[in-house]
Amino acid sequence: MRQPTALSSDVLLAGLRAAGEETRLRILALLSEGELSVSDLTDILGQSQPRISRHLKLLAEAGLVRRSREGAWAFFRLDETGPGGAFAASLAAWLDLNDPVLAADRERLAAVRANRAEAAQSYFASVARDWDRLRSLQVPDHVVEAAVEGAVGEGTPGAMLDLGTGTGRMLERIAPKFGRAVGVDANHAMLAVARANLEQAGLSRVELRQGDIYALPFARGSFDLVIIHQVLHFLDDPGRAVREAAAMLAPGGRLIVVDFAPHEMEFLRTEHAHRRLGFSRQQIAGWFAEAGLACDLSQEVTLADGGSGQLPVMLWRGRDRRVQADPPARKINLEVA
């Protein structure tokens, strides 16, 4: 088992004081399974919201957990960015999974996740007709996803960021290649769907955040890979979003953009809130250059027979021009089956 490293006596004592209470220890055990809201913890632990909030406040002050806001909701997870989170994970790992109290907590956690999955299915049932109509106009999703995986390659122990994560599908495919994976979306309902999907896929530790694509809540240079999948056509200022995404890249990092090629389907503006009817190769490459990226891949995603549907899908990849500290990545195969 991996042990926390370089803990000062102050950090260790604060962590022990915060964790040394039954409810707070149960909370740490639950958060070791993935991110949860205050409402989730209230349902699972059978305690009042103010009491749960007080416990979480103490855990956060000790550096064991961290909070993120999503509209009126607050979500908590172990603070993996600092030594306190590693210490909390170790404490959770030492607990006996057969303890009756902890076992009952996990059963209620499973019920909470089942309710999320049911809510996600209900949401998609309400939009299925329009969703299927749009998907029928382009190459199948699995072909696009395979193209993205090819452009990513083998991944790294570093971090990836998925902007406009939607249902979390890109995270499902790409997150296992990276040590840390984060998804951002402006829509709370879509994040709820993504949480349910990622939990069903066994990826409950992927981070999801509600945020503004023009003002991302992360330090510059924090990610080795950023993906913007089918998002730019909804934006008033897609070039600005590309620049903000590029600012998130570490030296040598990569930005992958997937979106439509130019088209004339005006109904997408009026019925589906598309602001742009696709982008040319030169347009995206120009935005990459303005953001300090070298465009090393620009390709149309097609079927094996060359077909692309009525809405051609393009994939661009830009690399940060700064020199990487690590050796260059291996050559990757970009062919799409």
From TrEMBL:
It holds the Pfam family Methyltransf_11. Residues 4-98 form the HTH arsR-type domain. InterPro entries: ArsR-like_HTH, HTH_ArsR_DNA-bd_dom, Methyltransf_11, SAM-dependent_MTases_sf, WH-like_DNA-bd_sf, WH_DNA-bd_sf. GO terms for molecular function: DNA-binding transcription factor activity; S-adenosylmethionine-dependent methyltransferase activity. PROSITE patterns: HTH_ARSR_2. It comes from the Bacteria. NCBIfam families: HTH_metalloreg. This is ArsR family transcriptional regulator. It comes from Bosea thiooxidans.
